[in-house]
Amino acid sequence: MLHSVIMAGGSGTRFWPLSRQMFPKQFLTLQGNRSLIQQAFDRCQPWIPPECCWVVTAERLAELTRKDLPLISDARILQEPAARNTAPCIGLAALCLEAIDPEATMLVIPADQVISDLLAFENDVRRAERLVTDDPERLVLFGVPPSYPATGFGYIERGNPLGPAGYEVASFREKPDRTTAESYLQTGTFYWNCGIFVWKSRRILQALARHEPAISAGLEALRPHLGQPTFQTALAEIFPTMTSVSIDYAVLEREKNIAVLAASFSWDDVGGWEALTRLLPPDANGNVVLGQAACVDSQDCIVRSTDTHVVTLLGVKNCIVVQTPDATLVAQRGDDEAIRKVIAALKEQGFDRYL
Amino acid sequence: MLHSVIMAGGSGTRFWPLSRQMFPKQFLTLQGNRSLIQQAFDRCQPWIPPECCWVVTAERLAELTRKDLPLISDARILQEPAARNTAPCIGLAALCLEAIDPEATMLVIPADQVISDLLAFENDVRRAERLVTDDPERLVLFGVPPSYPATGFGYIERGNPLGPAGYEVASFREKPDRTTAESYLQTGTFYWNCGIFVWKSRRILQALARHEPAISAGLEALRPHLGQPTFQTALAEIFPTMTSVSIDYAVLEREKNIAVLAASFSWDDVGGWEALTRLLPPDANGNVVLGQAACVDSQDCIVRSTDTHVVTLLGVKNCIVVQTPDATLVAQRGDDEAIRKVIAALKEQGFDRYL
């Protein structure tokens, strides 16, 4: 059976002040009326039934997750007692899946991305599943053909073709500098690593056992508690002992039998406020507005407000303005990463309560 | 006796979104803990006793006025049933004062200015009072020595000296263009007309009778209702029939015996958000903050927030950011007048409820 595992542990400073420690990015509704995590669930419906949909989230976010995804039963919402990056997260999901379905194939998807063309997505996942059926030892990644020389993503270099559907992975590349990113874009053999994976749960557990003994030992210690009332207590004790490491570093960059499949769906990591310019239509002056706003003599701005508040711009260009009931951000556009400086300044000034 | 008359009928779009139709500028607290109207009252204490302090405001603002000025009795808070500019406003106050004190001298001051050096203010008012005592037919204006070539004020040209304290008025000048304003500044014989006046109430009523028969007739029709329970009803009927005209145009520019007294206090009309840069100290990067803010890589901004909200700036220069619970303004600095465009846009977009 194909199961989906939605990774939803994000901390969410990128969309501050809309996202908060207690309300990270995956719960945001940036377009339409479904939050990002709801969209992650929706995009596998109906071809992955809800009983095969899993979410791994942080303990503190379990309630919000349940509220957003009422069709997923409590037993399918795994709660991390501590943040340990993606390897322990995926290991935990694989352990739970395997106990229920030893032959399970898992589709791992981040909770905070936007994917359009859902038919293409389903087809691509089917192709990935076939690659795994053909060779159950295979680990399949999705690669997004780059549309610009992005420096914020890791890249996957493709090698020999594996039939029409995919390629062997030739190499993984760290986030490149601009020049390198431009050369990746030119060659046409590099993809963005979008963090979407398909593999047998049994297979990823084996890989973790081989490369990350501390994670594997933790998972094995958890196994007797599966389906028991002691599970969450045991998890609270064991999970924090696992190595905090990404699945890419822990497994993918160390294994041989890795395939990359070029995504035919369109993908956006929604990495920060700039993403709104890709998700929402601009007005005649290039302003993108989510909520209520009046823009006077203003151009190329991104505005987020609510239905009970009006944001007004006057003579402003290239700005991001985000209003929430207790915090407002006004930023010059161009550097989504710089939001970290705001977070740091707020901490320094004792404004932690707004984080 | 010297009475003060605080003119507090302002409509207040200049400080939108902090000021509103139902909460105009005079009620704002922009520095310290006293609103502008409270400061107008305070600056005549204790040398004008509260029973000699009068306020003329709009009916809809009477409650706010009472709340801000609890020491002023209800009978001294005159409520205009309609906006009719300053001539009817001052005429109404003069009528009420004269009935109580036929020899009353009135100090007329706008409710929405900032005056520092209160001792100088008191001394200046005493000097003005003396000019009126010397010649009870005299109408005295305060002139503020210009500190820059302002184009937003009317100017008063001084003529022959009247002893050490003042000058005859040689002429009144409309708001000048930049070049003219520069020449006014150079000559040293021009003052800003700051709308502060001292005269006998009887005298200003005579002047209105001479130049504005419709206003005078209205006031005479009101006279029998003074101190009667019918007063407000009569006012509601009569006041709207009075000509809407400024005291400057109605009387001052038409009379001969006008004196100007050079203000030795420092004066600010608080004409818009730019005023905050004159009223509050900037931080090391030139940012002026009223309330809570974190400014990162930002310069020369004016920020207004509240104690339960934080405004954050990132890489922003020369901006005005004003946060209120239901409306936010983000404007490029440099043109306080342009706020009108925002008001117009809000009306056009059906956002009248935020005005």
Q: Give the distance, in angstroms, between the N- and C-terminal Cα atoms of chain A.
A: 41 Å
CATH class of the largest domain in chain A: Alpha Beta
Oligomer: homodimer
What shape does the CA trace of chain A take? Answer: globular
Low-confidence stretches of chain A: none
The total domain count of chain A is 2
* CATH topology title of the largest domain in chain A: Spore Coat Polysaccharide Biosynthesis Protein SpsA, Chain A
Q: So how many helices of chain A?
A: 11
The count of strands of chain A amounts to 17
How large, in whole angstroms, is the Cα Rg of chain A?
Answer: 21 Å
SS-based class of chain A: alpha/beta
Order of helical and strand elements of chain A: EHEHEHEEHEEEHEHHHHEEHEEEEEEH
Biggest beta sheet summary of chain A: 5 strands, mixed, barrel
Largest protein interface, residues of each chain: A-B, 39 and 39 residues
Give a description of the structure:
Two copies of one chain form a homodimer. The first copy, chain A, is an alpha/beta fold and about 350 residues long. The first copy, chain A, has two domains: about 1-270, Spore Coat Polysaccharide Biosynthesis Protein SpsA, Chain A (Alpha-Beta Complex), CATH 3.90.550; about 275-355, no CATH class. Chain A contains eleven helices and 17 strands. Chain A has a five-stranded mixed β-barrel. A four-stranded mixed sheet of chain A has the order 12-14-16-17, with no helix packed on it. In chain A, strand 2 (about 55-60), helix 2 (about 60-70) and strand 3 form a beta-alpha-beta unit. Chain A is globular and about 60 Å long. The interface between A and B is large, with 39 and 39 residues.
